[in-house]
Design a protein that fits this description.
Layout (H helix, E strand, L loop, with lengths): L15 H28 L4 H22 L3 H14 L3 H37 L6 H26 L3 H29 L4 H29 L1 H9 L9 H37 L5 H42 L3 H28 L1 H8 L7 H27 L3 H21 L8 H25 L6 H26 L5 H22 L5 H4 L5 H10 L4
Helix pairs in contact: 1-2, 1-6, 1-10, 2-4, 2-5, 2-7, 2-9, 2-10, 3-4, 3-5, 3-9, 3-10, 4-5, 4-8, 4-9, 5-6, 5-7, 6-7, 9-10, 9-14, 10-11, 10-13, 11-13, 11-16, 13-15, 14-15, 16-17
């Protein structure tokens, strides 16, 4: 007879919003640090857009192998662990972790060897950028460490201990930023400022940082070993499963999630395979690599910044919805999905419009020594809103068990991207802008398919006015105020200072507009950071 009661443990779990907030702060810090070393590399004499092109090409191949060996693993492990924890089966949850760790250690090792041994062929024949060989070799060990780290992060996420993931990722990025600057400077001195060797040094920093991230997770696991042992002893509803059965379940969940990530990686690899090849038809190779460096270096870095804030919701949604579904709690599924989608819209829309308006000034501010690419950034900015919403939708669908939908939706988008890249990029009047246009179409198509599927499976507590009209009005108010303030300020102060002040004004105006339009209900306000205090203030002011 299966026990229905779940025994209490002494381990304190995080709430959904605590986990989200922790990840938001972590991801923002990670992206800020990532931006710092991108600024350093782009403005560093001898590196610039060409160096970014070499690093980006090598990194996309690394990312694809990384996807196969580990991406999807955290969410898959998180889902399986949270389902067992929700019914009190802590022993089963830990067994999933141990088997997954051994399995993906082997897969990660194979991925590292493939990249190391195939670096020469990939650089010379696939990418047609021979300088990228060194970056691939330097990145190869990272695949193993990321694979095993992913299993540990998934286990902690499933136990509602998302702080471990956030801290390890933050530590990893701190090491990466510091080591990138140190190693590139050392290599620059030793190689007489060789762009190829400097790119290799930058990617070696990534590998060393992944080792540091794993080291933190290992130490964290050891400090929690007594708590985990206590949980295992308090297990109820445990059902023995063979190793083969557990591996099969892990793969059933992780493969579709990994395929979704592979589709996303392919989206970037389409650029690495097609852009330089196509541009070389009507411009010199060095110029073609530089153009790709603008797209794959500066532009991708800037457009991915908003995603770092939103990824917290997609990450936290998987275990939250999996656990709610295990308890058959339909209300919680609807509330958390609807709230996450609304916040994603409120993050993505202003970032899209703001980056379109201030593309040129932002590049001048951040990359004074290599500020070209405003048009590419304006076009690419349109991907932000669709990617952010799709990110959240995929988290909800994966947590709900609809694992194939994200793969299909993004797969259709990637096919659209490939076709448009091959058509648009070879046209001299369009060039690299064609790759940015193709990415917009890719993410629009993926979002549309995923959104329709989500609405069929999960009842959303969102009206059109709340989800679309009010955010659009708030964004329009923000855009108009910030644009005209920039024009006015740039006449009396430097353009860089005018940009900073205009963006700061945009944030204030947008926040006030959201409050004035009552986009959030009182209940939703309390879910935000310092939401209860904010709700009391707004109530006193008779706004709510």
């Amino acid at each position: 007879m299966v026990k229905q009661a779940v025994r209490k443990t002494t381990v304190k779990k995080e709430t959904f919003m605590q986990g989200v907030i922790t990840l938001i702060f972590s991801q923002v810090l990670i992206k800020v640090l990532g931006l710092l070393y991108t600024l350093y590399l782009t403005n560093r004499e001898g590196f610039g857009d060409k160096g970014n092109g070499i690093v980006a090409a090598g990194y996309q191949i690394y990312a694809m192998l990384l996807t196969i060996s580990s991406i999807g693993v955290p969410n898959a492990i998180s889902k399986l662990v949270s389902e067992r924890v929700a019914i009190g089966d802590h022993k089963g949850a830990h067994r999933v972790f141990k088997i997954a760790f051994a399995t993906f250690a082997l897969i990660g090792l194979i991925g590292s060897l493939l990249l190391f041994l195939g670096a020469n062929m990939i650089a010379n024949y696939w990418l047609q950028i021979p300088e990228a060989e060194m970056t691939l070799v330097a990145l190869s060990p990272a695949i193993f460490f990321v694979a095993i780290s992913s299993v540990m992060r998934g286990y902690f996420n499933g136990r509602q201990n998302i702080k471990a993931t956030a801290r390890s990722q933050t530590m990893e990025q701190i090491f990466k930023t510091a080591l990138t600057i140190i190693l590139v400077e050392i290599v620059a001195i030793l190689s007489n400022v060789s762009t190829e060797w400097m790119a290799g040094g930058a990617t070696l920093a990534t590998t060393l940082a992944t080792m540091a991230g794993f080291g933190y997770l290992y130490l964290f696991y050891n400090t929690r070993s007594k708590e985990i042992a206590t949980e295992i002893r308090s297990t109820v509803n445990y059902k023995y499963e063979r190793v083969r059965t557990i591996i099969k379940k892990i793969l059933i969940v992780s493969v579709p999630i990994a395929l979704t990530a592979i589709m996303s990686s392919l989206n970037k690899n389409i650029d690495s395979f097609t852009v330089v090849r196509s541009l070389k038809q009507f411009m010199p190779e060095d110029m073609a690599i530089t153009q790709y460096g603008i797209l794959g270096g500066k532009v991708d870095t800037l457009t991915s910044l908003p995603l770092s804030i939103n990824v917290a919701f997609s990450t936290a949604l998987v275990p939250a919805i999996s656990a709610a579904k295990a308890r058959k709690d339909i209300k919680t599924i609807s509330q958390k999905t609807s709230f996450s989608l609304l916040v994603s819209m409120l993050i993505g829309l202003p970032c899209t419009i703001g980056m379109c308006i201030f593309a040129g000034p932002i590049l001048q501010l951040l990359f004074p020594n290599a500020s070209s690419g405003a048009t590419i950034l304006q076009i690419s900015a349109l991907t932000i809103i669709f990617t952010i919403l799709d990110q959240t939708i995929n988290g909800a669908l994966q947590g709900y068990g609809k694992l194939k939908i994200p793969v299909i939706s993004l797969g259709v988008g990637v096919i659209s991207k490939l076709i448009l890249n091959l058509i648009l990029v070879p046209i001299p009047e369009i060039g690299v802008n064609g790759a940015a246009m193709a990415s917009v179409v890719c993410h629009l198509v993926a979002f549309a398919i995923a959104m329709v599927s989500l609405m069929k499976n999960i009842k959303l507590d969102l009206t059109f006015s709340k989800f679309v009209i009010k955010p659009v009005i708030a964004t329009a108010m923000m855009g108009i105020c910030s644009y005209y303030s920039y024009l006015s300020l740039s006449r009396i102060i430097t353009a860089k200072l005018a940009t900073i002040l205009a963006i700061a004004l945009a944030v204030v105006v947008y926040g006030l507009a959201i409050v004035a339009l009552k986009v959030f209900s009182k209940e939703e306000l309390t879910m935000l950071p310092a939401g209860e205090k904010l709700c009391k203030v707004l109530t006193k002011l008779k706004i709510y």
